């Protein structure tokens, strides 16, 4: 019994630390199949986005709610304690590699190089951002590199690619962005069969269940109400692309309602 609608919910504390362009924030990336929403609960900052229409910066403060569809390259900018609740479509897909970071084109176009650049050292709270059929993470980061160093390294690499894409769009040339999209699709393509199984077991199943409930209500049948259940998914600390995360395993919640 997954979180409503097959979504996921994460608490995000956006990274500080200055990047090469003098800004603080997260690692620019896009999602190939999932829409993402930010509900800002504290601090201030901005959301920088790139798409075929160009560059945009949207201010963020407590109460801001924005969302962006697949293909929107986004970068969270921290201008003072930015705290966000992230609501993510298709729970399970982003964790399985739906996110593709904006590394320079020579890296994104090479699956092995992308895998090496994206991998974090095994350790506490290191997420697995690589899209593969087995959701593996077998690449080896630089010897002796800690998680924090690896997070900063890949952020700088993604910011470099992000700035290059933004410059091309500013110059009126969408070609590099289109090439990035093509590379992103090629990277995730091997994982799609596994994603489809995840989607069938979560979003599609929830949709079918809602249709069955509506059919029952139309008949005047409220039997499903007798199965009312309280569930909980405790938080787990992780390193994310945009910041430190408090994630929730919505696919395996703890049942709090007593069973008869």
Plain-language structure description:
- The protein is globular, with a radius of gyration of 20 Å.
- Helix content is 30%, strand content 26%.
- Residues 130-143 have low confidence and may be disordered.
- The protein has 5 helices and 13 strands.
- A hairpin with a 2-residue loop joins β4 and β5 (54-61).
- The longest helix has 28 residues, at 192-219.
- It has a single domain (4-225, 233-250), classed as Jelly Rolls, CATH 2.60.120.
- Strands 6-3-8-1-12-11 form a 6-stranded antiparallel β-sheet, with no helix packed on it.
- The chain is an alpha+beta fold.
- It has helices at residues 105-108, 111-118, 147-170, 175-188, 192-219; strands at 8-14, 29-31, 36-42, 44-51, 54-61, 65-68, 73-78, 83-88, 99-101, 231-232, 235-239, 243-248, 254-255.
- The two termini are 18 Å apart.
User: How many helices?
Assistant: 5
Record field, number of beta strands: 13
CATH homology-level superfamily? Jelly Rolls
Approximate helicity band: 25-40%
Average residue-wise pLDDT: 90
Would you tell me the structural class of the helices and strands? alpha+beta
N-to-C CA distance: 18 Å
- The number of distinct structural domains comes to 1
Remind me, CATH topology?
Answer: Jelly Rolls
Query: How much of the polypeptide forms β-strand, as a percent range?
Result: 25-35%
Q: Which class in CATH terms? A: Mainly Beta
Taking strands numbered 1, 2, ... along the chain, how are they ordered across the largest sheet? 6-3-8-1-12-11
Question: What pattern of helices and strands is seen along the backbone?
Answer: EEEEEEEEEHHHHHEEEE
């Amino acid at each position: 019994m997954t979180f409503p609608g097959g979504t996921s919910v994460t608490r995000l504390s956006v990274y500080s630390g200055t990047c090469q362009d003098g800004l603080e924030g997260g690692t620019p990336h896009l999602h190939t199949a999932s829409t993402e929403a930010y509900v800002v609960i504290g601090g201030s900052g901005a959301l920088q986005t790139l798409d075929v229409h160009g560059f945009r910066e949207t201010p963020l403060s407590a109460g801001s709610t924005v969302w962006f569809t697949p293909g929107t390259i986004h970068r969270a900018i921290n201008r003072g304690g930015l705290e966000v609740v992230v609501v993510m479509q298709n729970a399970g897909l982003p964790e399985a590699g739906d996110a593709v970071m904006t590394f320079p084109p020579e890296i994104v176009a090479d699956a092995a190089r992308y895998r090496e650049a994206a991998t974090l050292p095994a350790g506490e709270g290191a997420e697995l951002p690589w899209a593969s059929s087995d959701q593996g993470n077998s690449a080896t980061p630089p010897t002796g590199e800690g998680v924090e160093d690896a997070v900063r390294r890949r952020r700088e690499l993604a910011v470099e690619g992000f700035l290059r894409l933004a410059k091309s769009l500013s110059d009126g040339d969408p070609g590099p962005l289109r090439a990035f999209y093509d590379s992103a699709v090629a990277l995730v393509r091997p994982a799609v069969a596994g994603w489809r199984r995840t989607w069938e077991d979560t979003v599609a199943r929830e949709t079918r269940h809602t249709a069955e409930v509506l059919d029952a209500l139309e008949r005047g049948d409220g039997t499903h109400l007798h199965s009312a259940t309280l569930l909980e998914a405790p938080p787990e600390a992780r390193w994310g692309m945009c910041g430190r995360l408090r994630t929730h395993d919505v696919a395996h919640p703890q049942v709090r309602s007593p069973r008869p």
